[in-house]
Structures are given as structure tokens and as C-alpha cells.
Amino acid sequence: MSTFRTVFLGTPDIAAHCLQSLIDDSHFELVGVITQPDRPSGRKLQLKPSPVKQLAEKHNLEVISPESVNTEEILQQIKAWNAECAVVVAFGQLMKQPFLDLFPDRVVNVHASLLPRWRGAAPIQRAITEGDKEAGCSLQVMKLKLDAGDVIGSRKTKIEQTTTALELLETMKGLAADLLTQDFLDYLRGMLSPVPQDESQVTYASKLLKSESGIDWSQSAKQISQFVRGFTMGPGAHTLWKGKKVKIHLAIAVDQTTSKPPGTVVRADKEGLFLACGQETVLQILKIQPENKGKMDALDFIRGYGPIPGDIFGET
């Protein structure tokens, strides 16, 4: 049985999940792991290692955490590992050509979108906010241009009416691991040929900013539902309620119309909390979080805060 000496680069949970899949697969020999430096975390801002570093140390793998993977010192250290290929999953640094040249055509990246759609930083979130019906993971051969490498393989999943970005992220973990243990292995064996991306179909997924997290009630209920579900990975969708900020964690468009102004409470009873939106549509709030409180069901919010028909969300 052939084994491939592999370098792994990644940082968050999804990367750790992929690393574990390679550790468990006897076809891969992990000779080195590279992750982001320890970062301050929690109220006391104590330095905390990334999920990938924690996993690598648990399995006694050699792990380094450079501020830049592109320095000559780090490149020489990677070269000394004598690896045959490199796997990159949500690493958080851009690799320059000297790194790619260490493993010609054998640096692969798992990207959480169906390339060429949603290249960039926030593919999961943008797929939901823009109303895509499906999402997925792609395995690409890395090149300098962002997420523009030839695609080795992909895996798809449906986006349902209530799918949040956090839920989709969990699904992506399994899809990504499957791509590495099946398609990547076949690629290394010469059984799969990468396919160039169709540049005419490219879209970009820019990072979600805190400044864009306010709900625009003039949008349709469907658009707002997508917006809310897309922002669950952070920074969270918010609006105002009686002058205080509240976060909306889950909401769905319902088959109902109203002539009330956007942001107006249409109903607040045992059936739930319903708000008017643009285009005379109605949104049902399912999960909400008042300022300085925990997340709660809409019925608990109704009982505790007493919204009534005619009240306004988003009023400044």
C-alpha cells in the first residue's frame, strides 16, 4: 500500500476535522502541521492554541505556528520534512509561489463552496444570504490567484429554508473530509485529472462586516430570513427594539401578506411573533436575543417583553 508524506496547513474546527480524517487514513503520513499562532481568547485574553494545533499535539505531530509561512526560514523547515504534498484547509494566510513550488501541482485546498461560485473569505455565509439552493465543498489545486485553481472534485448539499451558516458549516466538515480521503487520494495516484474553472461563472464571497449586520426591514421576508441565517457564524444579524439592540438568530418567511409598514409587529401571540417586511411580506421570528440576555424562543420573548401588534422593530 502506498503512503504519501503530507504537510497539513489549517487553523479552525473544520480544518481540525480534516486533519483527523488524514490521521485516521493509513494512506497519509503527516510529517508536519502548520497553523496560525496562538491568539488571545476569553475575557482574560489568554493565549489559546488553534483547534488544529491542539489536535496535532494530541497526536504528537510536529507543529509550527509562524506569523508567516512565506519566510525563508519557514520554507527551509518545511522542505526539511521531505513531504510529497500539502493540504490547506482554512489556514488563514496566503501562500506565495516559493511555497507552492515546494510541491508542484500537489498543494491542494479545500474550499467551502462549489467553485467557481463564491471564491473568497465567506462562501458559506454568502451562499445563504444570496438564497442559493445548494452549497458544497471543492478540492482545488492551489495557484496564486485566489481560489482559482483547477478543481479535483466537489461534494454538494442542499440549503433548506431554515439552514443556518453554522449548520451548513457542520455539514461541510464531512464533505471536506470525504474529498481528502477519496478524491485527493485518487488524484495523487493519477486516477483523477483536475478541471479548469469556468471564469465566466465566478462570484466572490467577501468577509461579513459588523457594519453590514443591521437588518433592513424594507427587504422582503425571504431576503431577511436568508440574511439572518447567513450571519449566524458572526457577527450576527441585529435590529432595534425600543431603543435597544436585539439579535435575530432564526426567522422564516411565511405565506402571508400585510399592508403594515416594514418592521411592524403584525402578530404576537401563542402562534408566534410575526413582523411586516418589504413587498408586503411577513417574517416569523423563531429565535431572538435581547440585549445582555441569552438566546430565546420567540414565545419566551413575547411573554417576557410583551410586544404587541403595531410595535416597531428597527425604529431609531
Describe the structure.
- The chain has 316 residues and is α/β, with parallel strands linked by helices.
- It folds into two domains: 4-205, Rossmann fold (3-Layer(aba) Sandwich), CATH 3.40.50; 210-305, Formyl transferase, C-terminal domain (Methionyl-tRNA Fmet Formyltransferase, Chain A, domain 2, Roll).
- 26% of the residues lie in helices and 29% in strands.
- It has eight helices and 17 strands.
- It has helices at 13-24, 51-58, 72-80, 97-100, 123-129, 165-188, 221-230, 298-305, and strands spanning 4-10, 28-34, 39-41, 46-48, 63-64, 85-89, 107-111, 119-120, 134-141, 151-158, 204-205, 237-241, 244-257, 265-269, 272-276, 281-290, 296-297.
- The strands form four sheets. A seven-stranded mixed sheet has the order 5-2-1-6-7-9-10.
- Strand 15 (272-276) and strand 16 (281-290) form a beta hairpin.
- Helix 1 (13-24) runs parallel beside helix 2 (51-58), helix 1 (13-24) runs parallel beside helix 6 and helix 5 (123-129) runs antiparallel to helix 7.
- It is elongated.
- The model has no long low-confidence stretch (mean pLDDT 96).
